[in-house]
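User: Predict the structure for this protein chain, please.
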Amino acid sequence: MSIKTLKLKEIESKTDNLYEAVMVISKRARQINTEINDQIKSQLGNIEVDEESGDQNIDRESIISEFDRKAKPTSIAIEELFDDNLDFEYEDKEQD
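Assistant: Here is the predicted structure, written as structure tokens:
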């Protein structure tokens, strides 16, 4: 796995400031992580139990290793931000 250096000015140019960019990326990464976890759970739930052969453990390990090889949620979120595929907006807070 290679490490990619990111230029802070490039990240900051996508939002008003660097803090905002980090918050947007982190929230999107959490959403992606939840989606991945749901996919894993649904695939693991479809495995039938074969107590004699132990094939269940092999299937579980192959599913989990398949997801481990995919890009990490934070990397996906950063790419989405750079590709302008990530929309975000502020919540309007009404003042009393």
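The chain has a mean pLDDT of 81.
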